[in-house]
């Protein structure tokens, strides 16, 4: 008997995969694995309903705690972002893939399938995990080169209720950290996104009174809201709600996918915006200038790997080791104002601040201002040296002469 484990979301693509895996690939049994990474309850329930109707065996795995602890917390330490936006979809894929592999191992199944197309990043992220096993990898959407219209007809023929319509054909991916909306008219980068694509955020409203929240951090991860200790899942859910009320965390951009295709992408991520803004702000209070300069490069390298789904590259734990070490002093709290689509730091404090008010203050007498004079004499010294020689015009060749051979 031939069996296959399908990483299943309950959406249109992965639902259509179930009959396809039987009819086009000849599998006898389809085992679906739906991983709860904080998508809406209704999505999970829809997935369970559809799996009951279409699949032979179905697993739902609540991985929210694990997702926050092992994927979102490292992301916060790394200020994870790609081309300026908060990473979301990318960081959930490895975990979903790992859970599917675990079920396949438990059941001795040697075939793994996903419902990603051949155009995006997600196929790469799933397969970076899947291909590390000795299983066959099946990607029906990509291999059969299916168009969305065809899929919709095929779904209807197989009794799958279709919720996407011609006017609202959005492809949505959600987890607790971020919501992504793609497709339809949004594929025209000039098309202005209609309000209806947003599910987590209200339209920014300048007449709405601001809300101030204080986020507490221990070793680089958020642990409390307004002084009340809170677990990661609860804290992120609450900040998504509060930030969403004030329209915080919308992104509309053109993104470079790994394959090189540019794509128009819309995202919502209120909690992520609030937490990352606060986290970066706190880092500036506690880390040294040298640490901050170097860490930007580590953050960038970490984000690039995370975007590509390469969490099994040995560089990933290398970078995480640096990040963990760098976060030991990232303790304290940041007051954040949520107002009209913005999350603005109002103040920050830390027991580990690298800050000396007694020295920096305009009123300070601790350090003599005169001591800086010697420093100032050497600052920019080389540029002045050139100027003295009349050689400071950067557009001119320095001497215009090739040195003579001695
Ligand atoms: N472009 C984003 C990424 O690669 C999001 C993809 C999410 N998929 C979706 N169907 N909305 O991370």
Question: Can you describe what's shown?
Answer:
The chain has helices at 12-23, 41-54, 64-77, 89-107, 122-130, 140-143, 148-157, 232-245, 270-286, 289-308, 315-326, 357-360, 372-378, 381-388; strands spanning 3-7, 29-36, 57-62, 81-82, 85-86, 111-113, 136-138, 171-174, 179-182, 211-218, 221-225, 228-229, 250-256, 262-268, 332-339, 342-349. With 406 residues, the chain is α/β, with parallel strands linked by helices. The termini are far apart. Bound molecules: arginine. Arginine is lined by residues 89-90, 120-121, 171-173, 180, 182, 255, 263, 265.
- Ligands, ions, cofactors: arginine
- The topology string of helices and strands comes to EHEHEHEEHEHEHHEEEEEHEEHHHEEHHH
User: From the coordinates shown, what is the CATH architecture of the largest domain?
Assistant: 3-Layer(aba) Sandwich
CATH topology of the largest domain: Rossmann fold
Q: CATH class of the largest domain, anyone? A: Alpha Beta
The portion of residues forming beta strands comes to: 15-25%
